[in-house]
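User: Some background: our group keeps a shared notebook of sequences we're curious about, and every so often someone picks one and asks for a predicted structure to add to the entry. Today it's my turn. The entry only has the sequence so far, pasted here. Could you supply the structure so I can complete it?
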Amino acid sequence: MARPRSPRNRRGEPVDPVPFLVSVGLAFMLSFSIGPIYGLAYGLPLSTSLSAAAVAFVALATVAYSQLVRSAPAVDAGPLPVGPRFERLLYAALGLGVVLAALTVPLL
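Assistant: Of course. Here's the predicted structure to add to the notebook entry:
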């Protein structure tokens, strides 16, 4: 049985697929668990809410692929420095908080 081929970055080097798969799984879970509820709360029909959730999922999956596969360093490149990783995590958390607050404010 042939070993599955790992994804490659834009330089053709193999990349660990696990962070991408975890990110896409979380994006799917959040898009389809929160998206339709917000859509229905805003008075949209269920089909439109599900379509918006699907569009949001595809957008998030595209960003995850771009960041975690296409522009990722090779598996054997060694660990990335802690500072930039923490900064990216902090900005992502702040961005998610702003988006959730912006979505919640009109419902109050």
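Suggested note for the entry: The chain is about 65% helix and 0% strand. The CA atoms of residues 2 and 51 lie 38 Å apart.
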